[in-house]
Known about the structure:
The protein contains 14 helices and twelve strands. It is of the alpha+beta class and 523 residues long. The protein has two domains: 10-374, no CATH class; 382-522, Topoisomerase I, Chain A, domain 4 (Orthogonal Bundle), CATH 1.10.132. The strands form five sheets. The chain has a three-stranded antiparallel beta sheet with strand order 3-8-7. A three-stranded antiparallel beta sheet has the order 4-11-12, sandwiched between helices. Strands 1-2 form a two-stranded antiparallel ribbon.
Amino acid sequence: MHNLLTDPLIRFNRSAHGRIEASLPEVYAALMRDDVEAFPALRPHQRHAWHAFLAQLGAIAIHRANLSEPPQVAEEWCRIIRGLTPDYTDDEPWQLVVDDITKPAFMQPHARSKDREQDYKSTVATPDELDMLITSKNHDLKSAVAARANFDDWIFALITLQTMEGFSGAGNYGISRMNGGLGSRPAFSLAPFVGGPGAHVRRDIIALLEYLPTLLSEYPMTDGGEALLWTVPWDGTQAEALLLNQLDPLYIEVCRRIRLRFKADGPLNGVRTSSRAARIEGKELKGRTGDPWTPANTSREGLPLTLASGGFTYKRVKEYLIDWERPPLLRPTRSEQDSSAPMRLVARGMVRGQGKTEGYHERSIAVRHQLKMAMLSSGGTQDLGSIAETRIEEVGTVQRILSHAIQVFAARGDSDKVSPEGRTLARPWLNRLDGLVDARFFEDLQDEFEAPNSEREGVHNRWLMHVVDHARGLLHDAADSLPCPAIHRYKAEVNAVGLFEGRLRGGSGLPFLFDQQEKEVEI
């Protein structure tokens, strides 16, 4: 009932033809043409879950059909996806609703006996109630608000729950591709610089197919193993926990026992139950499953990244890009290595906490050819990392000096009377400077990375002078904005500016920047 392979259950926008409804194979065909502008039902925090599902399913189907490249037409996509579930003549694994609990439904594992029907007592009224989002922070969403949900709302919620969820109380275990129940499944990949969701999906499918031999050699998984885990019966027992060596390298997992139903009066809803163990035996794995989108910590036995609060700041991205093992999809494919075309680094992730979510984060960074090629090896970006680290340290120096100057202004120009309250007053301007640096950090960084050695110092110093100029402007803005008695304002501003300029030129500041500037003036 409501078959993803044949029924138009998924809405998407086309730039030239407005909104249409399509089956899953028709969505794939449109994606391969890069004819999809957006999925209107897709929430921001669901983007990677949907993208990864499409890429993994597409790569699995192509690999098992022995095709050399992704199909272009819906009929072929339907054939190879259906070919993954040959034992189900009625397409049960692709139906949103299957009344027989001993048969799978889409992203809904089945029971071994109809007696297990009695386990499913907890109702799910809306897809929002089902989704992994625990609170509305940073999302402007509330749980259980989509009372008039469409079928694709349920599809996206199911995929997000089953492939992204962490531990959420006794009997509610999380996914295997995560370091601990409070971890996350962040995603980093390269994407074509020009194009929409389809160009990115097609690129990652091709990259996954290239990565398969490496994945099989590095992890104890099985080519042709269990791939669509909702097609494996599950009653929630410890004895049923799957081992990594039973799984296909690109397996699409499920972590919860849930079934969708139609109420007697029509609306779709769900019923769910708990489990006594995780679906995949992952306690010792700690998320080390070869997830092709997630960086690994080489200094901590290859544990996958758990995204920290604050998201993808320039400091964090630099750390993940340089200091962590880059995931396969953050490396260029063979065809991308042969092309000088720029690409985009796309980073996505949800920050999880105890009983809450702390925000969804996403960032897109332009990647030029030289940096793209440097991503091929772990040592390729060490030069970039050294440049970035120097820049981060120098921004920190400018921020400390700016903070001190604002504190002096807040103390009415008396440097002996700066206080913790002054540091608090300075924080908004430090954040603004950080934001200005962040907005262009990687673009400016690549300018220096690409420059000949003889020109790097000049490129670097011009960038740094721009940072200083921004800080200088923010100091004047702070002096105009912060309260200060009129009788003290002139002294406060003169002393704050004097301290700012003096410390920049002092031994603990950036004297080399001004020494060079003065030499140029003398010439």
